[in-house]
Design a protein that fits this description.
globular; Alpha-Beta Plaits; 22% strand; 8 helices; 363 residues; Ribosomal Protein S5, domain 2; 8-stranded mixed β-sheet; binds ligand DP6; alpha+beta
């Protein structure tokens, strides 16, 4: 699929009015992890995530016509009302990259305003929610100007593609409940270019699944995701990892379809630990778990053995623990969290989240 505009396409012929579009888009938690990329933001292996509900970005894209045509991107960015020069620079690079898809970028000036529902310092991957919200704004703008994305399936596919160019995991945030990104023969339509929705495959055991994020540390990550992916180039276990990811995806898909929660637990935890093991033996190496992450992991295993409640943990490239469990088990699991785990969190902080319905357009 090629979303690049052909000559003369998406160029404004008359002056547009000033206007704005805005989206709220969630973060997601990968169960099979995307770790390693090549080319222009293409994944080395397919990944599958749950879309969250309470952890989201809200982004408003204000646009106005430019006085003069220029191929230099013209934008400003405020996060929570404050300037963020580093991220503004990243956005300039991103807009420059997607000019081929949205040539009208050259004819407009943009003011981008964004906020997150989760604390900035919480270590939650904000690039997924940030770039998915922005990609949705750009697609909405294209549709408002040219009426080319009226079909929701086409709209979302393009938004996922555009989001991927900003941050790989953002491609998955476009869809409700669960999304799959990366080529695999397991699910029809799967692609490296964009994610596809897989919420329909979820057995009722996984409906309303809960995800509590235990904030072990609020410090900024010591390795950016991009640098992290880079570590997989020439990694001694890279080839084996990609094979394992494919296999784990197969088992995960099977467990999601059949409601095999025990299997689901096994795969989630294996994927999380493998991600961290890969980081620990890359060059340079990173140890991103903290003593309290390990303590919590231990306690979760003990709780599962004793209670027979199939609660699983997973982690991103950081020390925080995501606890995944069934809605029906929430009373017991939440009191376990309260009584046994919160003491290992920074300022006893956690975020109560769960499967979400995906992005929504806002005023
Ligand atoms: C460990 O999507 O943040 O969270 O494409 O470089 O922006 P870039 O990386 P990013 O990587 C996410 C890595 C991960 C696993 C995952 O979400 O699949």
């Amino acid at each position: 699929m090629n979303f690049e505009a052909s000559a003369g396409e998406f160029v404004l012929s008359s002056k547009v009015e000033t206007g704005k579009v805005a989206w709220r888009s969630p973060s997601n938690i990968a169960l099979v992890k995307y770790w390693g990329k090549h080319g222009d933001q293409l994944p080395r292996n397919p990944s599958l995530s749950f879309t969250l509900s309470q952890s989201y970005s809200e982004t408003t894209l204000l646009f106005k016509p430019r006085e003069e045509f220029s191929t230099t991107v013209s934008l400003s960015f405020l996060f929570d009302g404050e300037s963020k020069p580093d991220f503004e620079k990243r956005l300039q690079g991103y807009f420059d990259k997607v000019r081929q898809i949205f040539p009208f970028i050259d004819q407009l000036h943009f003011d981008i305003r964004s906020r997150n529902s989760f604390p900035h310092s919480s270590g939650i991957a904000s690039s997924a929610s940030a770039f998915s919200a922005l990609a949705l704004c750009l697609c909405s703008l294209e549709d408002a100007l040219f009426e080319t994305l009226q079909d929701d399936v086409v709209f979302r596919q393009k938004a996922s593609y555009v989001a991927r160019l900003g941050s790989g995991s953002a491609s998955r945030s476009i869809f409700a409940h669960a999304a799959l990104w990366g080529e695999t023969g397991l699910v029809e339509g799967a692609s490296d270019e964009y994610a596809i929705p897989v919420g329909d495959m979820l057995h009722s055991e996984f409906h309303q699944y809960c995800n509590t994020i235990l904030l072990v540390s609020e410090e900024q990550k010591s390795v950016s995701s991009s640098a992290g992916h880079q570590l997989m180039e020439g990694h001694p276990f890279a080839e084996n990892r990609y094979l394992q990811a494919g296999r784990n995806l197969m088992y995960l898909v099977e467990s999601l379809r059949t409601g095999d929660v025990e299997r689901f637990v096994q795969i989630c935890e294996q994927e999380a630990l493998q991600l961290h093991a890969l980081m620990m033996c890359s060059q340079p190496y990173y140890i991103l778990m903290q003593p309290n992450s390990l303590r919590i992991i231990q306690l979760i295993r003990e709780f599962r053995l004793e209670s027979k409640i199939p609660v699983a943990f997973t982690l991103d490239a950081g020390p925080n623990i995501h606890l995944l469990y069934r809605y029906n088990d929430r009373t017991k699991v939440e009191s376990f969290i309260e009584n046994n785990l919160l003491q290992y969190c920074t300022r006893s902080s956690m975020i109560q989240d769960g499967l979400g319905k995906g992005p929504i357009q806002i005023e």
